[in-house]
Amino acid sequence: MRLFHGDTDIASLQGAFTSVTRPYDAFDRPFHGFVYKIEGSSQYVFNNKVVELHKNELMYLPEHSYYAIRAENGGKYIIINFALHSPAPADEPTKISFRDHSKVYKLVHQIQHLWVMKNDVDVLMAKSLLYQIMAEIARQQESVYISPEAREKISTAIQYLRQHLYDSGLRVRDLHTLLGMSDTYFRKLFTQVYGLSPVQYINRERIEQAKSLLVSGDFGTIEQVAQAAGFSDVYYFSKVFKSQTGQPPTEWRRYTPRIKVEGAGC
C-alpha cells in the first residue's frame, strides 16, 4: 500500500528537531509525524505489534495514533511534525526502509535546519522538502513484487547482519548458507529488496557507524575506528569511506561538528 499520492496536501509544518529516544507513551498524537533514526534502535508498540526502528529507517506516525516507545539503545532521531488537509494515509505507525537512505537523510536534516530559521521563506522551502520525502516514500513503495516468503528470508538475513555487522569476520557466504540459498540467487534477491548488493549494504552501514564513532571523540586513531566499525584493513576502510563521503576519514572528522540535541519525546 502506498502511503502518499499526488493528492496528498500538506496543511502546515509543525516542528522539526533532533532529540534522544526515551521510553514514551503517545495518546491521541496531535499531528502526523516522521521519525528518522540517526543512531541506535527503538521499538514501537501498537495494536499488539512490535516494530523495531533502526538507524537510517523512517517511521510514519499518524495523527491521533496511540503507541508506546521502548528504547534500550534508543540513540538520536529527527522528528518532523506536520498537518494534512488530505485524509491520513494510514491509521497505524508504518516503517519505511530505504534502498538508498542518503537522499532522505539530507532532506530531513535540511528541514530541521530550515525550521530553526523559521521565517516565511524557510517554512515554504521546508514544506517543499517534506513533499520530496513523501515522493521518496512513494517511489520506494513502488518496488518490484517479491513474494512474502522471499521477503521473510531476506528479513532473516538482515537480522543476522545487524547482529554481526561490526564483526570483521562476517562473510556474505554466511548469509546465503544460513538461508539455504545459492550465492547467486541470494545476491539477486537481496539487491531487489534493498537496491544494493550485500557487500554494498554492509559497507554502507559500517561507514555510517564509523561516522558516529569519528565524531564521538571516543576513539583516538582511524585504525581504532575502522576496527570498531567492522573493517579489519584500515586502508580498505579509508578507501570505502572516501568513496562514500568524498573525503578521507581524518579530513571528514576535522570538519564535521557534533550533532546538536534538543527537545524530547516524539
Automatic annotation (TrEMBL):
UniProt xrefs under PROSITE patterns: HTH_ARAC_FAMILY_1, HTH_ARAC_FAMILY_2
InterPro entries: Homeodomain-like_sf (IPR009057), HTH-like (IPR037923), HTH_AraC (IPR018060), HTH_AraC-typ_CS (IPR018062), Tscrpt_reg_AraC-type_HTH (IPR020449)
A Pfam family assignment: HTH_18
Keywords: DNA-binding, Transcription, Transcription regulation
Domain HTH araC/xylS-type: 155-255
Source organism, top-level taxon: Bacteria
Gene3D superfamilies reported in the protein's UniProt record: Homeodomain-like
GO MF terms, alphabetically ordered: DNA-binding transcription factor activity; sequence-specific DNA binding
Protein name: Helix-turn-helix domain-containing protein
Lineage: Bacteria, Bacillati, Bacillota, Bacilli, Bacillales
